[in-house]
Design a protein that fits this description.
Length: 280
C-alpha cells in the first residue's frame, strides 16, 4: 500500500514539474488513479492515445507522425493531412494539431466549412444550389452577401416608429426610415439611376444646342431678306443757292435772252416793212 501512495505522489509531483516548467506537450494531459496505475482522460493536443492505463502518464500518449494530425483529445489514431487539389489552393501547412488550410481559386468559393471542395461563387442576389451552381433569388427573397442562401423579405420594419419606404429586391431587404427623418437612397438604386440621369443631361444639352443653332440660322436669314428689300436712297438734289452773285448771273442771263428776243422781233418787223415797200 505504501508503494502505491509513493507512485501516486511521484506521478503528481512529475506532472506538477512539467506544468510549471511548460516544457512538455507530450503524453497524457489529464488522468485519474486506478489502483496502482493511472488512466488517461485526455492527451495533449497533437497526441494520440497508445494505451488507456499504465504506471507512467507520459507513456500513455504520443505525438502524431509527420503528415498526420488529430483534433480529438482521446483518439487511438491520427488523421492524414488533407492535400489541396484541383480548384483548391494551399494556404497553410498541416501540423499535429490542425489540418491543412485550403482555399479556392478566384471566382470560386468553399463548398463547406472545411473547404473540402470548391463551388461557383454566388454574388449578391444569388444563392448556391445542390449542384454547386448559382441561381437568382426568387421574387420576394433576397441575398445580401455572397455565397448566402436567399431569405424572404421582412413584412414590417423592426421598430414601431418606422415605416417602409422601399420594397426589397434580390440583393437587399425592405428599406425603413424613422418618421421625420430624411430618406437616404439605397446604394443599388443610386447605381441604377446614375446612368439614367447622365443620359437625360446629355439629351437636354443636345436639345438646347440644336434649338440655339436653329434660332441663329433663322435670324440670319431674316436679316438677309430685310437687307434685300431696303431701296437705296437717291442722291439729294442741289437746292438753289442763295448766293447773290449767282442770282445776279441768272438775272443777267434772263435780260440778255429778252434783248435777243426783242432785237429779233424788230429785225423781223423791219424786214416785213421793207418787203411791203418793195411790193408797193
Amino acid at each position: 500500500m505504501a508503494a502505491i501512495f509513493c507512485l501516486m505522489g511521484l506521478a503528481l509531483l512529475t506532472q506538477g514539474c512539467w506544468g510549471s516548467l511548460g516544457q512538455t506537450d507530450i503524453g497524457c494531459k489529464r488522468w485519474h488513479q486506478k489502483g496502482a496505475d493511472v488512466c488517461c482522460e485526455e492527451c495533449y493536443p497533437g497526441n494520440r492515445l497508445i494505451k488507456e492505463c499504465g504506471p507512467d502518464p507520459r507513456t500513455l500518449c504520443e505525438p502524431c507522425d509527420p503528415g498526420y494530425y488529430t483534433l480529438k483529445p482521446k483518439a487511438y489514431s491520427c488523421d492524414r493531412c488533407t492535400q489541396c487539389v484541383g480548384a483548391q489552393v494551399h494556404l497553410e501547412d498541416c501540423t499535429a494539431t490542425k489540418d491543412t488550410t485550403c482555399g479556392c481559386r478566384d471566382g470560386l468559393a468553399c463548398g463547406n466549412d472545411q473547404c473540402s471542395f470548391c463551388v461557383e461563387k454566388c454574388a449578391k442576389g444569388y444563392e448556391p444550389t445542390d449542384d454547386r451552381s448559382c441561381r437568382p433569388c426568387p421574387q420576394g427573397t433576397f441575398s445580401d452577401k455572397s455565397q448566402k442562401n436567399c431569405q424572404p423579405w421582412s413584412t414590417r420594419c423592426p421598430h414601431p416608429n418606422q415605416r417602409i419606404v422601399a420594397k426589397g429586391n434580390a440583393s437587399s431587404d425592405i428599406q425603413c426610415i424613422t418618421e421625420g427623418s430624411v430618406i437616404n437612397p439605397r446604394p443599388d438604386d443610386a447605381n441604377q439611376t446614375g446612368p439614367l440621369v447622365l443620359i437625360l443631361i446629355i439629351a437636354m444639352t443636345t436639345f438646347c444646342i440644336t434649338i440655339t443653332i436653329f434660332i441663329i440660322i433663322v435670324a440670319v436669314k431674316h436679316n438677309q431678306r430685310r437687307k434685300r428689300k431696303i431701296v437705296k436712297p437717291l442722291p439729294p438734289t442741289e437746292s438753289p443757292t442763295d448766293d447773290p452773285r449767282t442770282l445776279i448771273a441768272i438775272e443777267c442771263s434772263f435780260h440778255e435772252a429778252q434783248q435777243e428776243q426783242g432785237s429779233t422781233s424788230t429785225e423781223s418787223l423791219i424786214s416785213n416793212g421793207s418787203s411791203k415797200l418793195v411790193i408797193a
